[in-house]
Amino acid sequence: MDQKSILGNKLYLSIILIIAAAAIIGIYMATNNTSPTVANGDTVDVFYTGTFTNGTVFDSNVGGQPLQFTVGSGQVIPGFDQAVLGMKLKESKTVTIPANDAYGPVNPSLIIEVPLSKFGNQSSQIKIGSVVTQQSTSGQQVHGIVTDINGGNATIDFNPPLAGKTLIFNITVENITKS
Predict the structure, then answer these.
(1) What ranges do the domains of the chain cover?
(2) How far is CA 79 from CA 29, 46, 145, in A?
(3) Does domain 43-103+163-177 have CATH number 1.10.8.60?
(4) Which helix (H) or strand (E) holds 153?
(5) What is the pLDDT along the chain (179 residues), one digit of tens a residue?
(6) 108-157: what CATH class?
């Protein structure tokens, strides 16, 4: 063999080895994705859009500031906490959260009837849709919505506004800070 052929074969072999090494590295990286996943105790930043089952959007922070919370700390509804577990950085997913894992079912004992006379000189300002504030037995301020006025009484619902509703969230994990 002449020297030109030997150099050509060495160059060809070198190219084959480089391609093989690149393929092995690519396979290794694809099977050993080291992107962090969300676990309990991690602090996450997420973007979300919440909709009802009919498609109506009730809340979204997309285009604004991400929601930051510590997973498992009770800062968000249980179904949302569970939904982000195992998600990776920049991953998006859509989850359906039943009422029991969201704001709970409607509690009939939180719907009360109050005589309008209890509102004193403000009773004429009470209308359907008015927000009423009351102090709970634990001393916290709770808000209710007037849902009906009938016969000198106002019906006030102190349930959370999203109680009893199945919620759908599209969630994107923007940042994960490991605990």
Answers:
(1) 1-34, 43-103+163-177, 108-157
(2) 32, 15, 25
(3) no
(4) strand 153-157
(5) 555 565 555 555 556 656 655 556 555 555 555 789 999 999 999 999 999 999 999 999 999 999 999 999 999 999 999 999 999 999 999 999 999 999 999 999 999 999 999 988 888 899 999 999 988 788 889 899 999 999 899 999 999 999 999 999 999 999 999 98
(6) mainly beta
